[in-house]
Amino acid sequence: MQFFTALILALPTLGLAQLSNNNLGSRPVQRGVITSAQALQAINAAAAHASNISVAESIAIVDPSGNLVAYLRQDNSWPAAFDIATKKARTVAGFNGAFTSAGLYNGTQPGGAFWGLENTNSGLVVFAGGTPIFVGDRFIGAIGVSGGSVDQDAAIAEAGAKAIGTTA
Ligand SMILES: *[C@@H]1O[C@H](CO)[C@@H](O)[C@H](O)[C@H]1NC(C)=O
Ligand SMILES: *[C@@H]1O[C@H](CO)[C@@H](O)[C@H](O)[C@H]1NC(C)=O
Fold first, then answer.
1. Which N-terminal stretch is annotated as signal sequence (predicted)?
2. Probe residue for ligand 1, chosen from 44, 52, 145, 152 as the CB with the greatest number of ligand atoms within 8 Å
3. Ligand nearest to the CA of 103
């Protein structure tokens, strides 16, 4: 009986915790999670763009926790690109979509404020090709693309993200 009373008293507190904003990114209730259908749609749009400019890409989609939701390795994509694409997407997810992977580049150069950041979290990738995906004000996941030049990767990631939402 005492246990249940305690639980009932605790529940509103848990609810308030979900609603409170600690100013360190999106609140849990503001987040959404990409569906597998959305992830496939983003991959197809990115792959179409990649084929159009004749570059073989590896394309990873992760949820807001950085877990892989969908992946496509286009024929002849570099073997190394699987890991790079996945880590670009995870890098974006690790900061709630506040930065593209390219947005972390300057700060991680020698002498930069975040120098060494890429060595955390079992390896991050801090150059272009990782892009957040937002729907409304919700960060639902991220796309990472690797295989072309950084400019190609970034453009293809953006095309994938924009097929289902926005990039900011
Ligand atoms: C492919 O390229 C053509 C010509 O530039 C463009 O009109 C078309 O929209 C592109 N399609 C995709 C999926 O990027
Ligand atoms: C990085 O630095 C370059 C050169 O100073 C600058 O042109 C560019 O806008 C910076 N990029 C970002 C994302 O801050």
1. 1-17
2. 52
3. 2
Ligand index nearest the alpha carbon of residue 53: 1
Q: Which atom of ligand 1 is nearest to the CA of 49?
A: 14
Measured distance CA(110)–CA(85) in Å, rounded: 23
Tell me the DSSP string of 60-117.
EEE-TTS-EEEEEE-TT--TTHHHHHHHHHHHHHTTTTSS-SGGGTGGGSTTSTTTTG
- How many whole angstroms separate alpha carbon 33 and alpha carbon 67? 11
Give the pLDDT of residue 1.
Answer: 45
End-to-end CA distance of the chain: 49
Does residue 168 form part of some domain? Answer: no
Range of the structural domain that residue 109 is part of: 31-162
Span 79-103, average pLDDT = 97
Specify the ligand 2 atom closest to the Cα of 102: 13
Q: How far is the CA of 106 from the centre of ligand 2 (A)?
A: 6
Residue 89 within a domain = yes
Token pair, residue 48, equals 């179409």
Q: Which amino acid type is present at position 118? A: E
- Rounded to two decimals, what is the model's pTM? 0.83
